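Cross-check.
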Amino acid sequence: MEKEGLARSQTGADRRSRPPPGRVRTAAAVASFLLAGWGAPALAEDPGCHAHQPIVSIRTGVARLAARLRHHDPVRILAIGSSSTQGIGASSPAFSYPAQLEADLGRIWNHSVHVENAGKAGETISETVGRLEAALGSTEPDLVIWQVGTNDAVNGGDEVQFSALLKRGIDAARALGVDVLLVDQQYYPAITDLVRYERFVNLVGTTASAEQVSVFSRYKLMKTWSEQAPEVLVSMLSGDGFHLGDRGYDCMAQLIAGSLQALAAPASASSGSTVAAAVRP
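Predicted model, tokenized:
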């Protein structure tokens, strides 16, 4: 299920040749969620990146990260997970979502931001949580972005154990004062057991709600792309029909960057708010 060396999308090729875009903002939000003052408006040249339903459930802010920004200290983000974090499906590591997120956040905040890519293809949560605990002790990140659950859902892992390990990882980060943003499972057309798969998606959401952790819902985003038109989702995926390609990772990075912009904005987000989209050209 893990495939590399896939052809680069046209969007990825264009991105290399054009000047890097410099402005990001939230394009839509609910619950009177306004993001004034955190970046100039940007034209949404790729409408496929838009989500027409909320994709980020905001249950808490990112106090540690926000403090680093206020004090003009370098920001360190640990992106951990499986193949979607590693960047399987991208034409090169430079087109993985963590690499593109680092560039996007540096432009948004005009600040030193390092996003460490700790993705490892094929992992389930039982393997990732151990690496997370070790990384927390050695790298001291300001934020953990934990992409989690796809391989567990595909392989049919134990649901009770999954929830317990997810809580364990969240608790390990919080014990050190490290903020957490979860990224749930991807949607893809060939899901064989949709009922079981969506149970795992819901486990991420319910555990995050109980732990008061924010979630970026890749599942909702990619399902929205599919509902817009099948060709929209296909254009975001790599040739294996499972992992994102360059364009999909680009959109994912844009949207996470806009979400973090919102989360770090002082006094702008209330508990339970949801962000629908955040895009840049």
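The chain has a mean pLDDT of 81. The radius of gyration is 17 Å. Passed to J.P. for a second look.
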